[in-house]
Prior knowledge:
With 108 residues, the protein is an alpha+beta fold. It has one domain: 2,3-Dihydroxybiphenyl 1,2-Dioxygenase, domain 1 (Roll). Helix content is 25%, strand content 25%. It is built from 3 helices and 6 strands. The chain has helices at 18-29, 59-63, 74-83; strands at residues 12-15, 32-37, 41-46, 49-55, 94-95, 101-102. The chain has a 4-stranded mixed β-sheet with strand order 1-4-3-2. Strand 2 (32-37) and strand 3 form a beta hairpin.
Amino acid sequence: MNDERLLSATPVLAFLDIERSASFYATHFGFKAQHVEQGVYGVVTRDDVGLHFWACSDRHIAENTSCRFRTTHVDGLVRTLQGRGHRSSQCSPRKQAVGSERVCDHRS
C-alpha cells in the first residue's frame, strides 16, 4: 500500500477581470493579493488557502466558475462576509449532499 496523501489543492479559477476578483476576495474574505496581473493571472491567499485566477474572455466559462470554502466556523464566516458588505443571496450556510458546508459562490 502506498503511503502518499494529498494535503491540499489550489483552484485556478476563470475570471473576466483579475483586478476586480482579487479586490473582491480581499474586501469580503480578507485575502491578501500576492500577484495581480490584469488580463493574465492573479493569486490571493488567506490562512492556508490560496486561490489562483486566470484571465478568461469567455463570459460563459467565467460565470460558471466557483469556489467552495470549508471552514471551522461557517456561521462566523457568514457574519464576517455580511459585516464586510457582502450581500449575495447565496451567502448563507447550507449543507450539501456530500456533507460540506457552502458559504458563498463568487462569479466574475
